[in-house]
Every structure is written in C-alpha cells, then in structure tokens.
Amino acid sequence: MKSLFLFLSLLLSFFANGQNLYIKTYGDKKNKPIIFIHGGPSGNATLFEGTTAQKLADEGFYIIAYDRRGEGRSADPNATFTYKEAFLDLNSIYSKYHLKSAVLLSHSFGGLVATLYTHKYPQNVSALILAGALFSQQETYTHILDTLKKKHSNDSQQLKKINIVENLDKNSAEYRKGCFELAGENGFFKMPNPTTAYTKLYAAYEGGKFYKSNIRNQNAPLLFYQNEKQNNIDTRSILKKIKASGVPIFGIYGKQDGIFSSAQIKSLKNLVGKNHFTLLGNCSHYLFVDQQNEFLSNVKNWIK
C-alpha cells in the first residue's frame, strides 16, 4: 500500500508539474542516463539537440533533453521560473523515466539549476558536469564589464553604454540583460577561429528542424528575478559540499569563453580537481558545438 501511494504521488507530481514539458530522449534507455539542462532563463535545448544529443547517445548513453517550464517549447503561462519549480520538473522527469539516478550535464544558467538540485537531492545525481556553466554570477558580470572598459577605453560612446549598465541594480533582470547583451555585441560567445567542422555543424543546425523551434520567452528573465530570491549567487561553497558528499563534479569550459575570468576558471579547477577539469582551446561558450569531438571524448571518459 505504501509503495502504491508513493507511485501515485510521483505520477500526480508529473502530471501536475510536468505536463507541459517538452522532453525528448536519445539512445537506449538501458544505458546510463544523462539529463541535459540548458541555459537561460529564456533558453532551450534546441542547439544541443540539433548538434550533439544523438552523438552523445551513440557513445553509449541515454540522453534526456528538455526545456524548462515556461521556456522554449515547454509553454506555460503560469510558470514562475523559480529554482523550486525547476526541481519539481526535474523530479517529474525522474519519475516519468523511472530513474534512480542520472548524470546532470548542465550548460550556462543550467549549471546553477543543476548545482542547487544536486545539493538538495544528492541521491538522485550520479555525477554533475558543469559545461560552460555559471557558478559565480557577480564575478561573471563584473568581468564582462571590466573587460569591455579596457577594450573600449578610448571610445566614449561605448564607455557610456557600459557605465549605464554598471550603475543598474546588481540584482535586477536589466543588469543581467545589459551585461550579456554587451558581451554578445562584442563577440564573447563566438568561436575565435571557426573550423570547418564547426561551420558544417552550425549550418546543419540552422537548416534543420531544431533551429525552427528555437523559441525564446523574453519574459522569463523578468519573472525569474521577480519570483526567485537567489538571483545573483556564487555556488562554489555549495559545490564544495556536493564534492564532500561523494557526488563527482566535472568541469569543461572554453578557453576563450569571454564571460569567465582566468581567476574564476582557476578557482573552479582547484575546486573540482585537475583530473576532473578540462579547458578547451579555440572554444567559447557553446563548447559542445565549438569543439564537439573533444567535448564528447571528455564526457565519455569521465562518465564511463
């Protein structure tokens, strides 16, 4: 009776909290499960799906890709965009696919979701992979602005734009948006020297079905900052606790990812351990596209 009650509770949780979730799986469900957690808020998993999901599955994994509630293809006008809501939806995925534990492969803002989830539910996570993932938000924003001030030191118009952003409320959606917009305008997210493999991969994505479903909810960041108190955090103390609990943590980052300072990268490498960390050359923020083969090789070697 107790087991039946638990099953019905989990089933109810899925239908109540995850009925609007876009979820797609790749590979054999008998293989080790990996849940991909995309960036945002306002992101989606289309780039990962359109370029990398099946290839990672071909390495012998069961890949679960999804869009968080209210983001991308998981339309929900009642979404609150809080970490609590993200946890409920992750738990509904565990329930739906009967997972005892899974690897969390997290990108960008998804790293914050995955880290906080792992801290709350360590028994559910067999490994945490931070792939170009955020872990110290204010340091990232400060680094972006400081880098641009040096770059545009003789450009009064650019310095004025930077100054406007710098003087915004540090715990606001406008501040986050301003920092990342400036980073995008200055090529912080682009592969430094595009290779033939990268060019072909991105062209295939842009010509395929996933690019056509690259839906962005522009209200998501505003609602996140409105509803979530933990909106500008540093998770390194939490990562230390996760490591101490026995959950393996791995980090893989692009050497030319402009949103992270060398000091940030060094601190994370020291935290997870040099054998659990890789820095990819000629690589920026979307490392699973920029250096796909190396990305796949590292994930496979770590998890298998």
Helix content: 40-55%
Mean pLDDT comes to 94
Secondary structure class reads alpha/beta
Distance between the termini: 37 Å
CATH topology heading: Rossmann fold
Strand order of the largest sheet: 1-3-2-4-5-6-7
Q: Any low-confidence stretches, pLDDT <50, length ≥5?
A: 1-18
Instruction: Please summarize the sheet with the most strands.
Output: 7 strands, mixed
Describe it.
The two termini are 37 Å apart. Helix content is 50%, strand content 13%. It has one domain: Alpha/Beta hydrolase fold, catalytic domain (Rossmann fold, 3-Layer(aba) Sandwich). It is of the alpha/beta class and 304 residues long. It is globular, with a radius of gyration of 19 Å. Helix 5 packs across helix 7 (173-185).
Element layout with pairings:
Blueprint: H1 2-17, E1 22-26, E2 32-37, H2 46-57, E3 61-67, H3 83-96, E4 102-107, H4 110-120, E5 125-131, H5 137-151, H6 156-166, H7 173-185, H8 196-206, H9 209-212, H10 220-227, H11 236-245, E6 249-254, H12 262-272, E7 277-280, H13 287-290, H14 292-303
Parallel strand pairs: 2-3, 2-4, 4-5, 5-6, 6-7
Antiparallel strand pairs: 1-3
Helix pairs in contact: 1-3, 4-11, 5-6, 5-7
Notable features of this structure?
304 residues, alpha/beta, Rossmann fold, 7 strands, globular, disordered N terminus
Offer a quick outline of the entry.
The protein has 304 residues and is of the alpha/beta class. Helix content is 50%, strand content 13%.
